[in-house]
Amino acid sequence: MQRSIAPLDVLARRIIACESCPRLRTYCSEIAATRRRAFRDQVYWGRPVPGFGDPRARLLVVGLAPAAHGANRTGRMFTGDSSGEWLYAALHAHGFASRPNSESRDDGLRLIGAWITAAARCAPPDNRPTREELAHCRRWLAAEIANLPDLRVVVTLGAIAHEAWLRAAGWWERVAPRERPRFGHGIERVLPDGTILIASYHPSRQNTQTGRLSRAAWNAIFARARERLGR
Question: Dihedral of CA 34/37/42/48: which sign?
């Protein structure tokens, strides 16, 4: 029997309407109004960005936050920036996406057995949400997790996303501090309920252009996710 996706649709509308963090809402609105020269003819999204993907997802990818001129412009996670170029190419290569690039909300891209989300839903100044802002957003991540019952593998992109998922999924409180899964590129942990958690560096330019994250090391993360899930 096909499961209704209505709860995720309702959740998306609630995320888009969120006004919990005045600093972030002001920043996103200002960016949407001023725009970058390369996108001056485009209408920016400028609102909180909901998760995106397949409601039957077995893979969850958790990023940090929308980019000011990426998802804050396009309205879809990891769409319209260099990080998204890395992510969707890897997802497509391993059978999780219908195409290797993501350009806009209406470009026809479909995720296959995967869902993409983030620790924060609004673009933060300098890519640094405060702990209070992350706490405000945690309810949205927790609600998405609750509405994705088929999840088996989680890939966290960066230390902030790693902690955000552990908190939203309830493991931060349930696991003793010394036993919490630590963050480090390629570190894998099987949690008591069978969920496989794989940590990765974020594909930001700070990591990809400095050589901290190579294309091979990045692709290996999603090859492993596919291997754990099977075909």
Answer: negative
Domain of 16 in residue numbering reads as 6-229
Digit-coded pLDDT (tens) for 87-146: 999 999 999 999 999 999 999 999 999 999 999 999 999 999 999 999 999 999 999 999
Total of domains in the chain: 1
Whether residue 1 is contained in a domain is answered as no
Q: Give the Cβ contact number of residue 41 at 10 Å.
A: 6
pTM of the entire predicted model:
0.95
CATH of residue 42 = 3.40.470.10
The answer to whether 76 touches 15, Cβ cutoff 8 Å, is no
Spatial separation of the C-alpha atoms in residues 103 and 78, rounded to whole Å: 9
What phi, psi does 9 have (nearest 5°)?
-65, -45
